[in-house]
Amino acid sequence: MKYRLAILSALLLSVSVMADDEVNFRDRTAKPEKIAKITGAITDETVNYVKIKPNVGAEKEISAADISEIVYNVPGAQLFEYQNARNAEARRGTAESKKAMVEAEAGYRKILASLKDEKTNKLQRHLHFKIATLVAAQAEGKEKQLAAAEELDKFRKANPNCWQLVSCVRQLAAIWIDNDKPEDAARVFDELAKTPNLSKEVKQEVELAVIDVLMRAEKFADAESKITAAIAQLPATDPQVARLKIYQIGCQAKSADLEKVVPQLNDVIDKTADTTLKALAYNTRGDCQFAKGQKKEAMWSYLWVDVLYNQDKTEHIRAMERLVKVFRDKDINDEDHAKKYEDKLARTR
User: Fold this and answer.
1) 262 Cβ partners below 8 Å, 6+ apart?
2) Within 10 A of 81 (CB to CB), how many other CB atoms are there?
3) Of 1, 36, 51, 89, whose CB is crowded by the most CB atoms within 10 A?
4) Which of 18, 48, 30, 5 shows the shortest CA–CA distance to 206?
5) In which band, very low, low, confident or very high, does the pLDDT at 219 lie, cut at 50, 70 and 90?
6) What are phi and psi of 31, to 5 degrees?
7) Structural domains in the chain?
């Protein structure tokens, strides 16, 4: 009898927990920064922010640039299917990753097919996004990857004012870069930057993403041109200036004098309390080291970001992408670790 009561209690607890929306976000006010969560009822969503009314206290506005995930309240009939799909998705990157993604996608599709009420529009949109993301993560080979990019592009065009937009564009751009389409990747970021009423925080994130795309495509002159133009528009005290100047160093990685740039980047790392700036400096240091043939030194620079300064999703993904490249380099040739980071990337994107 006690055993049955315990099971019933657990089930009721899970139902009560899922009765609220849950926003997981990067809390920049915490020292050190951390991933925090708020539960309650989501009252508004835009490309710039999500507003949520907690069960206790005033409504809160969270920048879309800081949101890592939202777990939506679902109708009771779909509750356990939703939990099962989320549990399956959480197994991405494990030994059973492929099976887990298939299960998660099937679960989300099943829930989506059952939702017709306009009250669940936010949930329906998120399920469309989840499905497109999972299809992209499972795509192998150029044909399937480009087909997955089409689905992400459809979502982008159909939902021009949703909080998932920046993440969608990032994943879309990553596929196009991997398939030698850097111009398409830069184009969608440029289009995103022109979104009406885009907040300063999101716009700056997009501008940096465009620069990063150009650098990954080794179009360093174009990247430097954008950096110079962006710096000219900002006051010298704007925090964005420090980030842009680090990107300038990265643009010159191949020709950089390591004896000069590494101490500059180390100085930033030592003096700033901003974990995003630290991560950017470590990644840039790794880029310069790798370009100059210091493969193991570059590996350690990227590992600092993966292990300690992973609060900023963009820089964390960048570090893991570089680690895949480093471990596959002929001088290191560690396929096990390269595959580990490929799986971790699929789970993080």
Assistant:
1) 285, 288, 289
2) 16
3) 89
4) 48
5) confident
6) -125, 105
7) 256-349 (1.25.40)
- Convert the chain into a string of H (helix), E (strand) and C (coil): CHHHHHHHHHHHHHHHHCCCEEEEEEECCCCCCEEEEEEEEEEEECCCEEEEEECCCCCEEEEHHHEEEEECCCCHHHHHHHHHHHHHHCCCCCCCHHHHHHHHHHHHHHHHHHCCCHHHHHHHHHHHHHHHHHHHHHCCCHHHHHHHHHHHHHHHHHCCCCCCHHHHHHHHHHHHHHCCCHHHHHHHHHHHHCCCCCCHHHHHHHHHHHHHHHHHCCCHHHHHHHHHHHHHCCCCCCHHHHHHHHHHHHHCCCCCCHHHHHHHHHHHHHHCCCHHHHHHHHHHHHHHHHHCCCHHHHHHHHHHHHHCCCCCHHHHHHHHHHHHHHHHCCCCCCHHHHHHHHHHHHHHC
User: Cα dist. 310→22, 35, 307, 324 in Å?
Assistant: 22, 10, 7, 16
Joined together, the tokens standing for residue 262 give 């590494």
Instruction: For residue 22, list its beta bridge partners.
Output: 39, 71
Average pLDDT, the chain: 87
Region 109-125 average pLDDT: 93
Burial class (CB in 10 A: 0-12, 13-18, 19+), 129: buried
CA atoms within 13 A on the CB side of 118: 0
* Rg (alpha carbons) of the chain, rounded to whole number: 21
Letter string b/e over residues 237-256, b meaning 16 or more CB atoms within 10 A of that residue's CB: eeebebbbebbbbbbebeeb
